[in-house]
């Protein structure tokens, strides 16, 4: 089986071609600010990014012949995890997604490319809006503000399946707490193949991270909103973008921060250790969603490469369950394996409604 996977990001478009389990091409096409500034809206980048995908395939001598094309899922309405065939309803909701992000282009590009190949389906899988929350996890103290979850569903579920396979079992038989450590940090409690609790890692819940503020004191935040000191857009950036490590230390580079700590920077040490402390508390909270019956805690994402962070995080959480570390993320492999699983009948193809 030959699969084309497409993953549009804020400043790049990643593509991969897999033949069965093996990568034939993995490419990361970078976009400059000048290139993207030509487009008023992210959706306007569609033709630009699609043409770059086709050019990259041609440049690498890869014939345009695929059994499936799969794109990174967009920020559509909340849906259960799994593989979805791109249909008209999904495309319409993606074009009018609740939040603007380049990932919204993934399924649209996949659909248009697949349409030119006879019998070739277009898929998305485990988008960031996957919602499998226990209903008790959804309620807050205000009926006006139910919890929503936006998290690293694709990578978390791929890592869960990888860990299960290594243990000679299946994702559906395990209770796991998984933490993705990236620019945003998501923590989810996975019970027998469903993420019954997960934070909104994009814009307002959980531990603070390199770029996100995480959970904030509600009363103080309201006062700040009406202080007249900031516009709405400026405050949004104080939650996602210029927040977390970026706000405290002026950088999101964890390796550079650790070097500063080793050189005696006490402020950097306090901030990074506070982040670790908050991550550990969130992981502990996720364990309670599973009644403490946790088969393993899995740590993944780019920050998982940091021995400083991982060693200190383990000190706080290892009493809960065995800890396994999977540094980085391989969303391209995850997309390809989801497409192959769907074609083989190992994963059900779901209908977006």
Automatic annotation (TrEMBL):
UniProt GO BP: acetate metabolic process
Keyword tags: ATP-binding, Cytoplasm, Kinase, Nucleotide-binding, Transferase
GO CC aspect terms: cytoplasm
Compartment(s) of residence: Cytoplasm
Keyword Zinc-finger among record annotations: no
Native organism: Bacteroides pyogenes
Protein name: Probable butyrate kinase
Coiled-coil blocks: none
Signal peptide as annotated in the record: none
Record lineage: Bacteria, Pseudomonadati, Bacteroidota, Bacteroidia, Bacteroidales
Alphabetized GO MF terms: acetate kinase activity; ATP binding; butyrate kinase activity
Substrates-to-products reaction catalysed: butanoate + ATP = butanoyl phosphate + ADP
Coarse class of the protein's main subcellular location: cytoplasm
């Amino acid at each position: 089986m030959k699969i084309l996977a497409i993953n549009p990001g804020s400043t790049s478009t990643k593509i991969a071609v897999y033949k069965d389990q093996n990568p034939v091409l993995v490419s990361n096409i970078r976009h400059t600010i000048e290139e993207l500034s030509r487009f008023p809206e992210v959706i306007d980048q569609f033709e630009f990014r699609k043409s770059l995908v086709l050019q990259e395939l041609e440049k690498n001598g890869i014939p345009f012949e695929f059994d499936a094309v799969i794109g990174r899922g967009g920020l559509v309405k909340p849906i259960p995890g799994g593989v979805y065939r791109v249909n008209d309803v999904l495309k319409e909701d993606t074009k009018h997604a609740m939040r603007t992000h380049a990932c919204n282009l993934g399924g649209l590009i996949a659909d248009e490319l697949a349409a030119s190949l006879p019998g070739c389906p277009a898929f998305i899988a485990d988008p960031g809006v996957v919602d499998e929350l226990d209903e008790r996890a959804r309620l807050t103290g205000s009926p006006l503000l139910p919890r929503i979850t936006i998290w690293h569903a694709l990578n978390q579920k791929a890592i869960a399946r990888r860990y299960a396979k290594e243990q000679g079992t299946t994702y559906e038989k395990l209770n796991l707490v998984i933490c993705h450590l990236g620019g945003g940090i998501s923590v989810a409690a996975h019970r027998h193949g469903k993420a019954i609790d997960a934070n909104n890692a994009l814009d307002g819940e959980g531990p603070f991270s390199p770029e996100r503020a995480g959970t904030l004191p509600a009363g103080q935040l309201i006062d700040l909103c009406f202080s007249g000191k900031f516009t709405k857009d400026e405050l949004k950036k104080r939650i996602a973008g210029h927040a977390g490590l970026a706000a405290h230390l002026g950088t999101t580079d964890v390796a550079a921060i650790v070097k500063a700590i080793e050189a005696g920077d006490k402020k950097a040490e306090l901030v990074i250790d506070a982040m670790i402390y908050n991550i550990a508390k969130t992981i502990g909270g996720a364990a309670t969603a599973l009644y403490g019956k946790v088969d393993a805690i899995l740590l993944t994402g780019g920050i998982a490469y940091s021995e400083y962070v991982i060693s200190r995080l383990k000190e706080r959480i290892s009493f809960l369950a065995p800890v396994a570390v999977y540094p980085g993320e391989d969303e391209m492999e995850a997309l390809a394996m989801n497409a192959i699983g769907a074609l083989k009948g190992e994963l059900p193809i779901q209908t977006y409604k």
